[in-house]
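Key result, reporting period 2: structure in, sequence out.
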């Protein structure tokens, strides 16, 4: 049998298998491992692949019978303990990865602490965790691995935004709240009688914002929480802040409650059963409420809001404020000879928002947001602030066909499996800002031209040989004009920079949220760029980056 021993190589790191007498039978792998474990080097790391190579080489040497003894093969390695401090990408946690020594030297507690300091961690360090790690490693077998959290930053606690508790239901919200019947069922066509509020009635309670808390990372970098929004409670027409409670808004007159920015307003209204031939067309300064339908070919014009508790069919409604139609908006396409444009028998035009249940073949135009609770079919829509079809997370409300101009869209489904054509233009906000930018640049050019002319005049005055008090006064006035013009140009340049920043942000903010799915054939336009969906994509946020269409996974509810 072979004479086998183990010794430390000249590099003082490798452990070698030494064969001093080569004679069969050779020990197998398990026997060699057992011999190694009984040797003084048992704590070192045995390299399995090196041991296999040594056994193979020994087998060949026995067969050749030409071996020059002793034969030495590196099969293990002597390792000191190692410690690596891993810090997360957000710099909020540091984890110590420790491997105990394998035939080498273990780390002292002081060396561990020094490694943490060298990593840069100086805040949120858990000294007890380092002590525990040292003690656990001291009694652990050779080559044992540990991962221990040794430092943790303090996460930001974001402020709680100002909230408004509505104590009465604003009319805009009644579109999505069908009335319950006596038998417990819900009739989606019945939204109940439009209620009014009385003077002194409580309307809105303000729940003030709560301040957040700053944080820090393990490198002691301060992380600043956003400041609280501290939104006010803003009385609208017909409302006032309660004298007993500064966070309570009450009605100062009888009327219809309507949600407004940071509060509510009460509108005095013209209330009608229906708008039909018996009533005639309506042109009213204030709010118009129709408890029934608006009949075909009728027109309603109001300086404030229009609320229709029934249907609006093949009619025109114009409002300086918002338009609410509790049931459907129905119309027909009208094609004109020798004209490529299509008009509609139903038109809703609002100075603020539009809220409706569903629309078919209608023209909808709002300077605010358009909200459709069920479906939008083959209509032309312009919504300066955005289009919402269905509630948050609702997958069924649909957009089928039509043309849409809006800076953002949220819907359940867009398009159909049959690839019905939907044209969506998301450029409105960007184009509006670009128009303002062009106007500013035109003003700047005019001011610069004027300044050049005035500078020329000043130069001519100063070159006049016959200086007099009159000329000196005139020069002073011209100089004053130049200074004003310079200040104006500086302000215009600042406005330009601000608008360029707004345009960049508006482009990056453009998106379409799809809670259900978007089908092939939907076409998007953003300024001069056009995009088209090719596949059916579920539950996504459609964004546009680097002239490519992207489908980000929408957050699930």
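The corresponding designed sequence is given below.
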């Amino acid at each position: 049998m072979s004479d086998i021993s183990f010794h430390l190589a000249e590099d003082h790191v490798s452990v070698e298998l030494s064969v001093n007498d080569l004679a069969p039978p050779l020990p197998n792998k398990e026997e060699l491992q057992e011999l190694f474990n009984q040797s003084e080097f048992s704590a070192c790391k045995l390299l399995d692949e090196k041991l296999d190579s040594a056994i193979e080489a020994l087998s060949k040497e026995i067969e050749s019978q030409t071996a020059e003894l002793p034969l030495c093969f590196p099969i293990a390695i002597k390792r000191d303990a190692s410690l690596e401090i891993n810090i997360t990408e957000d710099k909020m946690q540091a984890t110590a990865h420790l491997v105990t020594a394998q035939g080498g030297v273990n780390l002292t507690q002081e060396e561990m602490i020094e490694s943490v300091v060298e990593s840069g961690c100086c805040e949120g360090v858990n000294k007890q965790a380092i002590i525990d790690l040292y003690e656990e490693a001291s009694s652990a077998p050779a080559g044992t691995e540990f991962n221990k959290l040794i430092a943790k930053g303090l996460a930001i606690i974001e402020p709680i935004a100002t909230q408004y508790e509505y104590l009465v239901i604003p009319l805009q919200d009644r579109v999505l709240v069908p009335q319950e019947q006596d038998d417990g069922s819900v009739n989606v066509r019945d939204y109940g009688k439009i209620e009014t509020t009385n003077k002194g009635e409580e309307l809105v309670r303000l729940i003030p914002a709560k301040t957040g808390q700053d944080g820090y990372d393990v490198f002691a970098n301060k992380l600043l929480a956003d400041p609280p929004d501290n939104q006010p409670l803003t009385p609208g027409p017909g409302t006032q802040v309660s004298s007993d409670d500064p966070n309570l808004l009450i009605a100062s007159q009888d009327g219809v409650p309507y949600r407004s920015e940071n509060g509510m307003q009460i509108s005095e209204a013209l209330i009608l059963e229906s708008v039909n031939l018996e009533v005639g067309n309506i042109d009213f300064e204030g709010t118009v409420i129709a408890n029934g339908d608006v009949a075909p070919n009728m027109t309603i014009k109001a300086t404030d809001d229009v609320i229709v508790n029934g249907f609006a069919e093949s009619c025109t409604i114009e409002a300086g404020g918002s338009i609410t139609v509790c049931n459907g908006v129905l119309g027909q396409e009208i094609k004109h000879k020798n004209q490529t444009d299509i008009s509609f028998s139903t038109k809703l035009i609002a100075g603020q928002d539009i809220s409706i249940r569903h629309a078919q073949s209608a023209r909808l135009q709002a300077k605010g947001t358009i909200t459709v609770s069920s479906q939008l079919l083959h209509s032309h829509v312009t919504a300066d602030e955005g289009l919402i079809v269905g509630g948050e997370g609702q997958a069924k409300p649909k957009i089928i066909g039509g043309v849409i101009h809006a800076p953002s869209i949220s819907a359940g489904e867009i398009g159909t499996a049959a690839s019905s054509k939907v044209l969506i233009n998301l450029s409105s906000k960007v184009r509006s800002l670009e128009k303002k930018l062009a106007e500013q640049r035109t003003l700047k050019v005019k001011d610069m031209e004027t300044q050049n002319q005035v500078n020329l005049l000043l130069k001519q005055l100063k070159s006049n040989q016959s200086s007099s008090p009159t000329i000196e006064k005139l020069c002073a006035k011209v100089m004053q004009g130049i200074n004003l013009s310079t200040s104006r140009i500086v302000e215009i340049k600042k406005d330009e920079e601000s608008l360029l920043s707004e345009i960049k942000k508006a482009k990056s903010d453009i998106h379409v949220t799809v809670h259900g799915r978007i089908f092939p054939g939907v076409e998007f336009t953003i300024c001069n760029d056009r995009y088209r969906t090719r596949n059916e994509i579920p539950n996504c946020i459609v964004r546009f980056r680097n002239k490519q269409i992207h489908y980000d996974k929408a957050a699930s509810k």
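The radius of gyration is 39 Å. The CA atoms of residues 283 and 301 lie 5 Å apart. This case is discussed further under Risks and Mitigation.
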